């Protein structure tokens, strides 16, 4: 790349602002403006071309290797999360909990209709027993009153 | 393209992708994410057999689209110029501290001037003057006509010329 003089630099600069310079010409301009001695009116362009040069020198940071515990975390964290979700799902929405189960005299009954019939029968039997018990209690109360009355008027 | 060729390609294009993304996003972590995402997308494309004739232009175009998506999603990003400006280092250590400080201020000023340009002009000037792409390649990256690139580049350079002269004479 040939160095250029001030006159050429000014001509190229004009073309540069029109967007008509080639990449090679722009490199020549950059080299000219990054030199130490420049006319006063061209000094701002030194800053501009140095800015472009410095920007082009920026490199991405090297990707640092992950620490071991973070590698383990990366591997096992998704597995642990999946296992936790699986357990939670089967605890809350286990199909076994939705099956109807009842016990009659130690026998397991899973049919809902059969269980309902049995419950109705049991309820009816219990109602009858309660009625009988109430009637007996009434009779017992009457007998008690009767005994007290006899004891009152016919002392022993 | 086999694994080794892809690895060589992505290693060569990575600095350009990073610089371009950093210039738009102003955050190194976001720029690195974009570079990684571009690599992943290209890798998937290559595995499916989608071989683009201009892989580098495709990579830069993908980075541009990702950056624009991020900028649209998060308008707050891009306000932080400080991190990016720290990349500036003065290679001429023999100069006076005052001159170095002035140049640093000018450097930051130019960065702000470019950031104030419309996005298309910003991208044109960075792709041409920083990355050194031909106009045809820039047109492919920005998905527009070559004439449009030339116009945007010229407008951007003229605006910077006006602003930089004002900044210098202040």
Describe the structure.
By secondary structure, chain A is mostly helical. Chain A is built from six helices and two strands; from the N terminus they run αααααββα. Among the domains of chain A are: 6-57, no CATH class; 102-153. Helices cover 70% and strands 4% of the residues of chain A. A two-stranded antiparallel sheet of chain A has the order 1-2. Chain B is an all-alpha fold and 170 residues long. Chain B has helices at 3-25, 28-47, 55-73, 82-85, 97-116, 119-130, 135-142, 146-169. Chain B is globular and about 55 Å long.
User: What structural class is derived from the secondary structure elements of chain B?
Assistant: mainly alpha
Main interface by residue count:
A-B, 23 and 38 residues
The main pleated sheet of chain A reads as: 2 strands, antiparallel
Low-confidence stretches of chain A: none
Number of helices of chain B: 8
**Residues in β-strands, percent of chain A:** under 5%
Sequence stretches where pLDDT stays below 50 over 5 or more residues of chain B: 77-82
Task: Quote the beta fraction of chain B.
Answer: under 5%
- The helix/strand series of chain B, from N terminus to C terminus, equals HHHHHHHH
Output the radius of gyration of chain A. Answer: 51 Å
**Helix percentage range of chain B:** over 70%
The outline of chain B comes out as globular
Give the count of helical stretches of chain A.
6
Distance between the termini of chain A: 146 Å
As a percent range, the share of helical residues of chain A equals: 55-70%
Largest sheet report of chain B? none
Radius of gyration of chain B: 18 Å
Q: Look at the structure and give the mean pLDDT of chain A.
A: 81
């Amino acid at each position: 790349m040939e160095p250029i003089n001030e006159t050429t630099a000014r001509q190229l600069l004009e073309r540069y602002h029109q967007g008509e310079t080639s990449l090679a010409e722009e490199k020549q301009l950059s080299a000219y403006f990054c030199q130490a001695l420049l006319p006063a009116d061209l000094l701002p362009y030194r800053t501009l071309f140095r800015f472009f040069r410095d920007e082009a020198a920026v490199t991405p940071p090297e990707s640092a290797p992950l620490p071991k515990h973070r590698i383990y975390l990366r591997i096992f964290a998704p597995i642990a999360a999946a296992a936790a979700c699986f357990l939670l799902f089967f605890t809350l929405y286990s199909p076994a909990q939705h099956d109807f189960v009842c016990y009659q005299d130690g026998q397991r009954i899973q049919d809902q209709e059969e269980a309902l019939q049995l419950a109705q029968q049991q309820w009816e039997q219990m109602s009858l027993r309660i009625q009988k018990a109430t009637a007996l209690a009434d009779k017992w109360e009457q007998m008690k009153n009767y005994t007290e009355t006899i004891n009152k008027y016919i002392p022993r | 393209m086999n694994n080794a060729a892809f690895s060589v390609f992505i290693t060569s294009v990575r600095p350009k992708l990073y610089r371009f993304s950093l210039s738009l996003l102003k955050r190194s972590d976001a720029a690195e994410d974009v570079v990684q995402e571009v690599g992943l997308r290209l890798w998937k494309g290559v595995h499916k057999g989608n071989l683009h004739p201009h892989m580098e232009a495709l990579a830069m175009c993908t980075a541009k689209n990702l950056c624009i998506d991020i900028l649209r999603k998060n308008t707050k990003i891009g306000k932080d110029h400080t991190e990016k400006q720290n990349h500036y280092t003065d290679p001429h250590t023999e100069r006076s501290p005052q001159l170095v400080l002035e140049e640093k201020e000018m450097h930051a000023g130019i960065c702000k001037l470019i950031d104030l340009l419309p996005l298309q002009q910003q991208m044109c000037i960075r792709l041409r003057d920083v990355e050194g792409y031909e106009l045809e390649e820039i047109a492919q990256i920005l998905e527009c006509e070559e004439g449009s690139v030339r116009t945007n580049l010229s407008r951007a350079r003229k605006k910077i010329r006006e602003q930089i002269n004002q900044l210098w004479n202040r």
